[in-house]
Design a protein that fits this description.
By secondary structure, this protein is an alpha/beta fold. Helices cover 37% and strands 12% of the residues. Bound molecules: pyridoxal-5'-phosphate (PLP). Pyridoxal-5'-phosphate (PLP) binds next to helix 3.
Length: 399
């Protein structure tokens, strides 16, 4: 099945595609950094899968395998188009654990992360390092500083770094890392590259050719609009041929139609990154949701999604500027994610309460309000949010 479905809606206009999403009236949902809004097509696919589950004897293995491969192809279209490169796993942490299991690391080596990095791309490295006597190195960003500079400085300072494990967009405030520069510098030093794209996948293009990573992981439930519990792991050709899975699930093995597993020798892996496919995640419900989501996302195209989200975030920033709140913008914003930092804990609380009272859903954490739209909101929504922030600032005497 093609990842692009002719039934999916064409690229949306600049206005909101609100009718495609099942967001209740009165809610301005800006929390895609936590979980994407629900497409009606995804809701319908989920309902159909639940209904079909009442007669499991009618679900054929062929249909199920076709659904698995359609999701693989749909996700692959957002990486580099090669379904053989993609494994289906339950979480970003699982994908990072596969990378940590496989990449060569010795005592004394270091793994580079960001200070405050999301734990799914931290804990597996801590475990692996503690097993072998390697260590973590954390890039430190100065106040108001830039993660790319911090990463490049850390690489210059620490020649023991053998693995660079980073996001594309920092989960707390939306700051973009320049992966072109970081990947080139890492390659020059012979370090492996592992990327967690959970905060950018399906909102910003992926450049496998430029970054040449070893492993890339992402959840499927943020801008990719799919189900929780079904994440994607891209593996470089070397690891597709030589990598070891952490689970040894039968799904990852090829025994043809015999379905006999010899005691004497393990059955060969299925081709490509399928050797890393995890058990349990390929349940019909999650597959149906992910399949519908990826068909829509691919029908829009990630370049279009990015361009249209940029229209929304640009409108938000312009409105913040007009309200005199430009200094609240936490980081040079990307297309899909604006972090706003009110001055101090009381201000953050006041702003959070004002947003909640106005029906705006956003995460408020680590001193930052994450405003992360998808195509269900429009420019007017974004301007309204800026006005709410300005009113909250005035009411709390913040300026
Ligand atoms: C950067 C980042 N990575 C990973 C995740 C999720 O990881 P996991 O699938 O391991 O729960 C999130 C958020 O949910 C995230 O923001």
């Amino acid at each position: 099945m093609s990842p692009v479905d002719n039934d999916a809606r064409p690229a949306p206009a600049r206005a909101a595609s609100r009718d495609l999403f099942a967001i209740p009236a009165g809610v301005t949902y800006l929390d895609t950094a936590a979980h994407g809004p629900r497409l009606r097509a995804v809701q319908a696919a989920a309902q159909a899968a639940l209904d079909a589950g009442t007669a499991p004897w009618r679900l054929t293995t062929d249909d199920w395998e076709a659904a698995v491969e359609a999701v693989r192809a749909g996700a692959a279209a957002l990486f580099d188009g090669d379904p053989d490169a993609v494994a289906l796993v339950p979480s970003a942490a699982y994908g990072v654990a596969v990378a940590a299991r496989n990449l060569p690391l010795r005592a004394g080596d270091a793994v580079l992360v960001l200070d405050g990095q999301f734990p799914s791309n931290l804990l597996p490295w801590q475990q692996r390092c503690s097993e072998i006597g390697a260590r973590l190195a954390a890039a430190q960003r100065r106040d108001g500083g830039d993660w790319t500079d911090a990463v490049l400085a850390a690489l210059d300072a620490d020649p023991a770094i053998r693995v660079i494990a980073l996001p594309h967009v920092y989960w707390r405030d939306g700051q973009l890392l320049d992966l072109d520069r970081i990947a080139a510098r890492g390659r020059a030093g012979g370090a492996a590259l592992v990327l967690d794209l959970s905060q950018s996948f399906a909102a910003l293009p992926v450049s496998i050719a430029r970054w040449q990573p070893d492993f890339v992981v992402t959840v499927g439930h943020k801008w990719a609009l799919g189900a929780t519990g079904l994440a994607y792991l891209w593996a470089a050709p070397h690891w597709r041929a030589h990598g070891v899975s952490i689970e040894q699930h039968w799904l990852a093995r090829d025994v043809g139609n015999s379905w006999r597993f010899s005691v004497d020798c393990a059955a060969p892996y299925r081709p490509g990154a399928r050797r890393f496919d995890a058990g349990g995640v390929v349940d019909p419900l999650r597959l149906a949701m992910a399949g519908a989501a990826l068909r829509q996302v691919n029908a829009w195209g990630v370049e279009t999604i990015a361009a249209q989200l940029r229209v929304r975030t640009a409108a938000l920033m312009q409105a913040l500027d007009e309200h005199g709140l430009a200094s609240w913008i936490a980081a040079r914003p990307v297309a899909h994610f604006v972090g706003v930092r009110p001055p101090g804990a009381d201000a953050l609380r006041a702003v959070g309460a004002a947003l909640t009272a106005a029906g705006v859903v956003a995460t408020t954490r680590h001193g930052i309000v994450r405003l992360a739209p998808h195509l269900h909101v429009d420019v007017a929504d974004m301007r309204r949010v800026a006005a709410i922030l300005a009113d909250a600032a005035n009411a709390a005497g913040l300026r």
